[in-house]
Amino acid sequence: MGGIMVYEERNAWAGLIISPISMVVYVVLVLQQAAGGPLTDVDWFPLMLWVIGGSIVAVIILSIVWGIIAGAKDPDGVGRSDIRDRDISRMGGRVEQAFVVIAGLGVIALCAVGADVFWIANTMYAGFAVSALVGGVARVMAYRRGLV
């Protein structure tokens, strides 16, 4: 390939760039709003929605800009995909699903012990965020090292 990234790999990288940033932004916003008080008093719902929405928009924008740059270098191959891309995508999805299941089990356990909604929601958010991060790492590793 000569160092040229395919469309799906660029998208995986875009997610890997944005995901950790959005996770840190969310934690910082929650801690700022808590201002040293109990975290369960934070109005976390709008923060979470804005961070998730902003992350989605940021990944889309980064993917578009990166695609435009890649298209200038290789106009014929910018959006091309093949069976390898689909296999890597499926493998990444399975990795992500495992972490979502783990988060779901954590949520069930928190519900069972009567935890505050703050902890339940944030456990699920963390599960989705870690899932996206680990799935992206798995995809990029598969692109760089191949599927085993």
Report on this model:
The chain has 148 residues and is mostly helical. It is 79% helix and 0% strand. The protein has helices spanning 7-34, 44-73, 83-112, 117-145. α1 (7-34) packs antiparallel against α2, α1 packs antiparallel against α4 and α3 packs antiparallel against α4. The longest helix is centred in the middle third of the chain and has 30 residues, at 44-73. It is flat. The mean pLDDT is 91.
Please describe the structure with a list of short key phrases separated by commas or semicolons.
single chain, 148 residues, mainly alpha, flat
Number of E-type strands? 0
* Content of β-strand: under 5%
Number of helices: 4
The secondary-structure element order is: HHHH
Largest sheet: none
- The end-to-end distance, rounded to whole angstroms, is 19 Å
Q: What is the rounded Rg?
A: 18 Å
